[in-house]
Amino acid sequence: MNTLVVGGSGFIGKRLVDGLLEVGHDVRIFDKLLSEKHPKLTTLGDVRNEKALAEACRGANVIYNLAAEHADDVEPVSLYSDVNVGGAHNVVAAASANGIKRIVFTSSVAIYGLNRGEPDENMDSQPFNEYGRTKDEAEKIFLEWAKKDKRHSLVIVRPSVVFGEDNRGNVYNLMAQIASGKFVMIGDGLNRKSMGYVGNIAAFLVTQADTDAGTFVYNFADKPDLSANEIVQIVKDEMNINHNIPSMPYTIGLLGGYAFDVMAKITGKKFPISSIRIKKFCAETTVKTDNLLNSGFTAPYALEEGLRNMIKREFK
Q1: Does residue 310 contact residue 163 with C-beta atoms inside 8 Å?
Q2: Higher pLDDT, 72 or 265
Q3: Domain residues of the chain, as ranges?
Q4: Could you give the C-alpha distances from 148 to 145, 151, 225, 248, in angstroms and in order?
Q5: CATH number of the domain at 2-164+194-222+286-301, please?
Q6: Mean pLDDT, to the nearest integer, of 108-125?
Q7: Is there a contact between 157 and 206 (Cβ–Cβ < 8 Å)?
Q8: What is the pTM of this model?
Q9: Is 297 helix (H, G, I), strand (E, B) or coil?
Q10: Nearest residue to 310 via CA among 108, 109, 192, 169
């Protein structure tokens, strides 16, 4: 199968490309960055460039769209809309121009918002930031494309927090703070987090390349969910850290986050602590994964195994 992975040089993308190649796909990458592992498969380009994207899609049977602005502190803020929403428009246009009937889109559980219980795929969206809002808008664009032709196949995967080797996101920042001895637990740590190991989500995405016509939506997380305290304890155990972690009330921690926001704005520097990151860390962010379980997919790694794999690679 001829497969185009838009955003294939990124964290999840490179693992996905490896998996697709292993099962015999003819893979091409479209990304603004050259893939370090697969440079010969890469066409350099920006998802905001409709013409270049349409050209890269020629001959493809399926498009994976992983390209996104996803960090908490993207500047200018308009990039979220330009890349996430504009990119979705361009992927749909490229698919239509080339007669491509299959699209797999990585959205996000951020569309649900924070502290919503345990959302399933039918819950309404209440995004709390621009990332979640623009992912929600992108979903609507793909859903509209899917409705236009009964032969279209659309898979929307909504990952929870994805972590793993070679990632420098929020989970890495948490581990780094614990390793440095500077971590302070904000709140009581009882809030649970849905998380997904990169090796597992990449494996699931590989299975979605040749789905039947129709629309399929999946929350993605590795169960069981862990509390913030449990995550911290796993990290401590793997790093052989024995001292107690200090804690502070949520309100005080959030005020500290706002102080870092102000410093970031004044200095132009990016700090590992911000009000958004504190809100996200302290929130109960869990999702139901019944659709994923009913799909027959079996994750190759346990959640705790994924966390320990990351620590061994990044901190030992």
Answers
A1: yes
A2: 265
A3: 2-164+194-222+286-301
A4: 5, 9, 37, 53
A5: 3.40.50.720
A6: 94
A7: no
A8: 0.93
A9: coil
A10: 169
